[in-house]
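does this look right to u?? heme C version
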Amino acid sequence: MARGILWFKSRLEMKLFSIIIVIVAGFAALIFLTIQKETDDLLKKTKEQASFLSSSVITSLQKDMMEGRADMARWLIEDLKTMKGVERLQIIRTDSTEAFQDLRTIRDVEKRTAIKKEWLENHPDRANPIAKGIDNPLFKDTLKKGTTEAVEYNERVEGKEVFTYLKPIANEPRCFGCHGSDKNLRGILMVSIAVDKDIQSIRWYVIITSVITVLIVITFMRTLINNIILKPITHLVDVVDKISMGETDKKIDISSNDEIQDLADAIDRLRISMKMAIEKLYKR
Ligand code: HEC
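got this back:
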C-alpha cells in the first residue's frame, strides 16, 4: 500500500481531504463575511442612535435656555446620563470643564442679566469639574476647529469599547443676551454609547464553535474515508497480491453495496476462473 504522506495514511486520503478542506474554507469565509456585515450594521445603528439623541438633546437645551430654564437643561443632562447604554453624556465647555457642575456660567450670565433662583436650586457646584474624555486627539481637534460639524470616533472607556459622538453647540445671536458674543461655540455635547457587548461575544462564540465543528468534521471524515474507501481497497490489494501468488481458495469478503463491492466481485470472478484454470492445468 502507498506510503504515508505527511499525516495522511495514503495519497487517496490526501486527495479526498483536499476537497473537504476547500469546502470547510468556503464555509469559514462565509461565516467571516456574515459576522463582518453584522458588526457593520450594528455600528451603523449605534451611530444613528447617537446622532438622533444628540439632536434631541440640543433642541431641548436651546428651548429650555430660551425659556430662561437653564435648570431644566441641567436636569435633562443629569437624567440622560443614567440612560441604558449611555456610557458618557456631558456638555463640555470650551475650556474643557464639564458644564452644569459649577457656578461659573451662572456668575458670568449674572453680569448681563438678573439670575433666577431656580438656576441655583440643588446645583452641584463642584470645584474644578474637568470633563472626561478630553485627552482624545479628535476631541482636541474638534475644540480647536470651533465649527459646529459633528465628529464621531471609537474609543475605550474603562476597558469598554464605546462609540463617541461630538456635536458642538453654536453660540447664536439669540443666546448673546445671557452668554455674550465673544465665543463662537457654547460648548460641545459628547455622547458615548457602549458598543453592543453581544456582537463581541457573538464573534468569539462563532469562532470557537467553528473551530470545534471543523475539528469534529475532520476527525469524522477521516474515520469515514478510512472505513468506506481505504480499508476495503487495502484489503483488495492484499487479496489480489495473494491470488497472483497462487492462493486462489479464499473468497473475497466485502459487502459494501457500492462500486468497491463491484470491484471485489469482479476480482472474485477472476479468482474463480484462475482457480479453475489452474485445476485444469494440474489435471492434464
Ligand atoms: C436667560 C439666559 C440664558 C439664555 C438666553 C441662554 N442661556 Fe445658556 N445658560 C444659561 C445659564 C444660567 C447657564 C448655566 C447653567 C448652570 O451652570 O447650571 C447656561 C449654560 C449653557 C450651556 C452650558 C455650557 C456653559 O457654558 O456652562 C450651554 C451649552 C448653553 N447655555 C447654551 C445656550 C444656547 C445655545 C443658547 C441660545 C440658543 C443659550 N444658552 C441661551 C442661561 C441662558
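The mean pLDDT is 90. idk if thats expected tbh
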